[in-house]
Amino acid sequence: MQPIIDSHAHIDFPEFDDDRDTLLQQMRSAGIKNVLIPGVSARKWQRQIEVAKQYDSYYALGIHPWYSESTLITDVETLRALLARYKNDARLVAIGECGLDKLHKGNFTTQLKLFKDQIQVAKEFDLPLIMHAVKAHEEILKCLKTENPQRKGVIHGFYGGPQLALQYVNLGYKLGIGGLLLNDNAPKLQQTVAKLPLESFVLETDSPAMAPKFSGNNRNTPLILPEIIKKMANLQNKSAVRISEQVFFNVTQLFDL
Q1: Burial code of 50-66, b = ≥16 C-beta within 10 A, e = fewer?
Q2: How far apart are CA 151 and CA 239, in angstroms?
Q3: What is the DSSP string of 234-253?
Q4: Which residues, 6+ apart, have CB-to-CB distance to 122 below 8 Å?
Q5: From residue 27, how far is each of 55, 61, 75, 81, 98 by CA, in Å?
């Protein structure tokens, strides 16, 4: 069985404190080999690194747009210092999650500056980006074209249609496909997965958030990944084995795992 990697799961969050050991065992039994834990704010980085080390998981360091208002001027320099300190840690594989979110009430100008700062950091350390993009694709695409980072990255939690998807894919970026694909009211995303080449996608869950509607759970976990693979196989009219093989190759190539 082809191993599975969740390219975006916040297993360091308190929602997993009571059963993290059990969940990781269940994941490995289900063929989920590893997870990538994205960063969200400077105050959470140390805990995140500890969890990644304890479970030998991959991680990224970054500042989520939701935390832009509470970010200190020194936090980007702290990020640089941490990256320099851990640059030889094979588990540190990306910058993020960073990006833009127009649905969040925070100051958009602050978000934009912080996003551009993190693109620069990614370029300095030659790391790919994990990007949060909500109602701000035009601005994100403009930043990526202007800054043109060499290592590219992934648009996390992608939910748009094929036309938008191709704008990212044609620039060299991957699309993070998660539990939204399993919802009946996601025709645009399902169309994207059906139409675009398999090379365009990586798997993710955004656990503990973004649980599929039918699951009845408030907390999402990486254990839904086999269901996402089945759905992708159905939409692409290919075998689940073929999907697993390609998305595993995509994630290992993207993050140099």
Answers
A1: ebbeebebbbbbbbbbb
A2: 30
A3: HHHTS-HHHHHHHHHHHHHH
A4: 94, 95, 128, 129, 149, 151, 153
A5: 12, 23, 33, 33, 27
Please give the order of strands across the beta sheet that includes 174-177: 4-6, 32-37, 58-61, 92-101, 129-134, 153-156, 174-177, 201-203
Spatial contact of 5 and 248, defined as CB atoms under 8 Å apart: yes
Place of tokens 């599975």: 4
Cis previous bond, 97, omega within 30: yes
Q: Which helix (H) or strand (E) holds 21?
A: helix 20-29
pLDDT of 88-132, one tens digit each? 999 999 999 999 999 987 789 999 999 999 999 999 999 999 999
Q: Is the pTM of this model over 0.85?
A: yes
Report pLDDT digits (tens) over 30-81.
Answer: 999 999 999 999 999 999 999 999 999 999 999 999 998 888 788 999 999 9
Concatenate the DSSP letters of all residues of 181-237 into one string: GGSTT-HHHHHHHHHS-GGGEEE---BTS---GGG--SS--GGGHHHHHHHHHHHHT
**How many angstroms separate the CA atoms of 72 and 248, rounded?**
37
Q: What is residue 177's three-state secondary structure?
A: strand
Cβ neighbours of residue 90 closer than 8 Å, sequence gap 6 or more: none
Q: E strands along 53-125, which residues?
A: 58-61, 92-101
